[in-house]
């Protein structure tokens, strides 16, 4: 079931900051930080799982298991990127049902042609707005939980311009989307125009090095946004730390002097080893320590 806290946060008009998660380490770390939502990024999940570009290569089957693991392994509501819904209308229905069963509280669907591309890279093309509106209507009908949110993304800005992107955002809102995501506006002025034009919760995509300016959460709320996702922050930080550690090891042959790390003890705790050790100790004694048998 979808977590009702996420829909309640939107209803209360609390600005939602959602870090990107891409594997179970990032998911568990972010889960303990007190965020109101976590965002499963396709870019990071595809990169960490398959080691390829976020360019429509990953399938529904590749993604739903990993999405489910992250949702089940965390207590924070999760919104998951589901690309185009992995096909036509029947695929969209199947994807919504599968992601809902996996335990997420919201799904993001986009209006790109297949195969899709990462939203801050060139060459994206979109399907007709009316075709995407049908996908949104199918998604809205497929959900069985009113707390399950549909995020509708349009990639029209880059190829068709801001006016068309705003038009599509309005159409998708009318079709039943709960949150509107206009991808890659290219200035703060464009973001302000989006905030004035669409009367629906708006999502801002804050990608370090992307096409959209990075604005503080307070400023995003001021110009009309309800939520910001930071899909790349985790895997970019992880890649930088790994590069530094591996380079040091290669240069020196010594891991002891790499410097500050998360710590093996902390990692064992994060992954639940203390519970494993307690379980093993109890059953090594025949399960009698708590009077069970």
UniProtKB/TrEMBL annotation:
Pfam families: PEP_mutase (PF13714). InterPro entries: ICL/PEPM (IPR039556), Pyrv/PenolPyrv_kinase-like_dom (IPR015813), Pyrv_kinase-like_dom_sf (IPR040442). It comes from the Bacteria. The keyword Lyase applies. Gene3D superfamilies: Phosphoenolpyruvate-binding domains. One of its GO terms (molecular function) is lyase activity. Keywords: Lyase. This is Isocitrate lyase/PEP mutase family protein. The lineage of its organism: Bacteria, Pseudomonadati, Pseudomonadota, Alphaproteobacteria, Acetobacterales.
